[in-house]
Amino acid sequence: MRWNKLIHKKRSQSYTCEPKMDDMVEEWISNYGHDLKWLAYSYVKDHSIAEDITQETFIKAYQKYPTFRDQSSIKTWLYKINVNLCKDHLKSSYIRRVVKKGADLFRSIPAKDGTPEERLIIKSNDEELVDQVLKLEKKYREIIILYYFEEFEIKELAEVLKTSPNTVKTRLRRARQLLQDQLTTEGSSENE
User: What positions does the domain RNA polymerase sigma-70 region occupy (predicted)?
Assistant: First the structure.
C-alpha cells in the first residue's frame, strides 16, 4: 500500500511539473526559435531541413533539461545543441550522397523609413553581405553569424564551439579578413 501512495505521489508531482516545463519550452521557442532556424539554415542551406533541425533542438532540450547544469545560459545551451545537430546532419551519409545546389538567401526585413529606392539598396547590400558570409568556410561562417548576428560573447562562442577563447578570437579575425577580401574583390569585379 505504501508503494502505491509513493507511486501516485511521484506521478502527481511529475504532472504538476509538466505544465511548467511546457511553458518553458514555449518561451524558448518564442525567444530563440527564429534565430536557431536562421543558424541552422546557415549550416545546411535548406529551409525545410533547418526547420527540422530547429524542432529537433527543442525536442532534445526538452528531453535533456533535467541534465542541464546551469553552467551556461539557456540560450548558449540551445545554440550548442543546434550547432551539434547541424554538424551531425552535415556528417550524415545522406548529405555525403546528395549534392545540394542553390539556396534562397536570407530574407532581410526592410527598414520602415526611407524611400523605396533606399530600402531596395539596403536590401541588396544586406543580401550581398549574407551571400558573402554564406560563402565562407564553415568554421569562419559560424563565428561571424554567432558573433555579429546572434551577439554571442567570445566566452560563449568558445563554449558553443567547444574550443578555446583564443581560437575563437583568431577565427573571428581571420573571418573578418576573408569577408573583407571577398567584398572588395566582388566590388572591384563589378566596377570593371
Answer: 29-92
Decide if 38 contacts 149 (C-beta within 8 A).
yes
**Ordered DSSP codes for 8-61:** HHHHHHHHHHHHHHHHHHHHHHHHHHHHHHHHHHHHH--HHHHHHHHHHHHHHH
Which CATH fold topology does 1-104 show?
A: Rna Polymerase Sigma Factor; Chain: A (1.10.1740)
pLDDT score of 6: 37
Dig out the grid coordinates for 72 from the structure.
551556461
Span 105-143, pLDDT tens digits? 334 444 455 666 666 666 666 677 777 888 888 888 888
Select the more confidently predicted residue: 66 or 183: 66
4-26 pLDDT, tens digit per residue, is 443 344 444 444 445 688 888 89
Residue 37: what are its φ and ψ, rounded to 5°?
A: -65, -40
Residue 17: what residue type? Answer: C
Q: What is the dihedral of CA 146, 149, 153, 154, to 10 degrees?
A: 50
pTM of the entire predicted model = 0.53
> In 3-state terms, what secondary structure has residue 109?
coil
What does the DSSP assignment read for 64-105? Answer: HGGG--SSS-HHHHHHHHHHHHHHHHHHSHHHHHS-----PP
What's the grid cell of residue 83?
550547432
